[in-house]
Design a protein that fits this description.
Elements: H1 2-30, H2 39-50, H3 63-72, E1 78-84, E2 90-95, H4 107-110, H5 113-122, H6 128-140, E3 150-158, E4 164-173, H7 181-210, H8 216-238
Antiparallel strand pairs: 1-2, 1-4, 3-4
Amino acid sequence: MQKKWYRVLPLMALSSGILVIFLLATVVVYKPSRNIENIVNRKIAFDKLKQIKVKSTDNVNSKAFFDYINKMLSGAVIKTKWLVSPKGEVIYAKGEMTASTALNSNIYSLVDAQNRGLIDAVECNLDSIQKGVMYVAASIRREGEHNDIYGHLVIPLMTNTHVLAGFVGVSYTLDDSKTPIRIYVISIVLIICFFMYWLSLPIWVYYDSRKRNNKYILWTLFVLIGNLPAYIAYHITRR
């Protein structure tokens, strides 16, 4: 029985090694694309923003209105909310990215030179509200580190009499899709095959070298660490 098992080990290493390569390629092919603009999430965030109403500019900088903003923009999709005054001061900030555009900061001082140059280049085509929207968007996106996982939206906040009361900005998740079950199954099989491949060679060397010399423990450890190159080196010295 031991002799039969001993002969099967190299074949097991070869077949499991081929399976590892195949499964790795399968994971790459079937892995879902992440951080791609999610139209559904963007629509959810935009629809929530459109529902925000304000009667007067005097109501904006108040706890009651902050609570109203937080309630209107609640949900799993929206991760950060900002409320900016018409003069560019961040008067409300809550969520995961508030460190990048903190409370009481001014959006006009936060925008970097590159974005400032971009806004200046199109300034002649913008009115004051459009320019303010661009500054808010540039300031909440300036961190850059999380822009691959979060999208951003900014709208001007107008009163019933069409007076600018401020700007509302949000960050929302670009992609909240879950990894398919098949990826987990393939990954588990991949790990099993990898260990079968990696352990088959040193086990074979252990049985083979034990009956040939008294250094079989060293050879087994050598192949366990070095795997295929060490296995080839063993065969060269074995002859």
